Amino acid sequence: MNTKVVLYRASILHFPEATDVPSRDYVHFVDGGLVVVNGKILALDEYAVIFPKHPTAEVVDYRGRLIVPGFLDSHLHFPQTEMIAKYGEQLLEWLENYTFPTEDKFKDMNYCRYIAQIFLRQLIDNGTTTALTFASVHSQSVDAMFEAASQLNMAFITGKVCMDRHCPTYLQDTASSAQRQSDDLIQRWHGKGRNLYALTPRFAPTSSPEQLASLGELAQQYPDVFIQTHLSENAHEVAWVKELYPTHTNYLDVYEHFNMVRKRSVFGHCLHLNNDEWAQLSESGAVSAFCPSSNLFLGSGLFDIQSAKEHKVSIALASDVGAGTSFNMLRNYGDAYKISQLQQSPINPYEGLYYMTQGPAIAYDLSDNIGNLNPGSYADFVVLTPLANELSKLRHLGANTTSTATSNNADQTTVENASDMIFALSMIGDDRAVEATYIAGKQQKTPMENLNALA
Ligand code: GUN
Ligand code: ZN
After folding, report:
1. Amidohydrolase-related domain: which residues (predicted)?
2. Which ligand number lies closest to the CA of residue 132?
3. Left if phi > 0, otherwise alpha if psi is -120 to 50, otherwise beta: which for 146?
4. pLDDT tens-digit series, residues 365-382
5. Of 351, 333, 427, nearest in space to 386 by CA
6. Which protein residue has the closest C-alpha to ligand 1 atom 9?
7. 324-338: per-residue pLDDT in tens?
8. What are the phi and psi torsion angles at 33 (to 5°)?
9. Domain 71-327 sits in CATH 3.20.20.140
10. Which residues surround ligand 2, an ion (CB under 5 A)?
């Protein structure tokens, strides 16, 4: 086993524990050191404190950059990678016109493998080290995704979409085939390496009560698998669910009836919930996945941040690619910020970072492994640079004249104001701001100069 000790020197920011007030409970080492051995974090401290304790460590110098935990994207669709940014529809028409035809391509295993590779490169380029992603209805799309993620030793969560009605027949499974195939995939992948399985009924309209019942049985049989689906995204969808499930008191009650509302249940969107639904989410320990760029793109509505907070429902930020328009979680925070501004309750950068790292890691009972830089966690982390392009340099260092310099980073070797940097990158940054992405201690992002050489 490779027991090389590596000490990363940088400004370092994370949330070591659970908190309702991320802007208070963060830890920021302006000149920090992160020690990594065998793919896991051994220690984190001030560089001046940690260096003498590890005098033989290889030092990797990232001064001037900010290390944060790798990002968790809590809701997205890997089959929709090719159809990101398709013009002009709201949810139900968008599914009919773009999504279903694209997802049909996953009947071909070569296509599954091809897209899985591109998808993972997008995640890594943007600093996402764990994703909770929908696959397609085809079991092999799950195999392709887990195989590719396993190559990177990445903490990865996915599941076969289940849908047996109200979608093209070429994409339909049945109640019993969905149960059998999901069960097979759980046996094959759940808990293997860093992989975890998610039962994945697409949403209530495309599953018959029989199918939800069959998946609910699996949920009871496997209490630690994830459950991912959509909840209350679009007004027409909500009305449709009322018609299809008339005896249920509300949308969430449909999932509740079939044993799908619990810890490790992740509900995408949650835009049009009433107080009973918020209370039920809170009581169950389920998570609401806030998908800001998708909600704006499809014109679905605005996530009610105040209600989520008042009910103490865990919020996880998510890209929802391909309805979401960016794999970049910081950009998705940027959209969340704009939505929160409309609601006079701005989400500050610490909250934004928390909702894509330690917050969901705790809600998923995964914080022993991911979401933070605590000793014992996997060395899944991201190196952010404030100097990725001319505008970002100007924004962070100020103009290069003594009279107008406004830098918070005068010597360019430390990041004094991490919240300002995260905020600026959420508005004007992109994948270039992610200088490196480490997964289990291994740098997985292809450096820019290599990409240039390929061109
Ligand atoms: N609701 C049901 N399926 C989908 C999907 O693929 N994307 C989004 N945004 N909402 C959905
Ligand atoms: Zn979605």
Report:
1. 67-441
2. 2
3. alpha
4. 999 999 999 999 999 999
5. 427
6. 323
7. 999 999 999 999 999
8. -135, 135
9. yes
10. 268, 320
